[in-house]
Design goal:
About 40% of the residues lie in helices and about 10% in strands. The protein is built from 2 helices and 2 strands. It has a two-stranded antiparallel ribbon with strand order 1-2. Strand 1 and strand 2 form a beta hairpin. Helix 1 packs across helix 2. The relative contact order is 0.19.
Amino acid sequence: MPSFDVVSEVDLHAFTNAVDQASRVIETRFDFKGSDARVELADKTLTIHADDEFKLKQVTDILTAKFAKRGVDTRCLKSADPEKVSGNKVK
């Protein structure tokens, strides 16, 4: 009887490409001009910064779309509640 192994690993190259592409989209979008919306990837930790929770949701949607386009499963991410950084800014 044949057997197979299931490997659950994320393609890090596709993951970083999706984050880079999302960063470029965020930089060029008109509704993010002059805002502090950005995506940071450091040591397998993805941090999303935005001016308010609405923009945070928009950045998350952009990032999810880029992951889906590259075949990266978003279930590999653990999301935390947005925390206030300073003023109205959240991450």
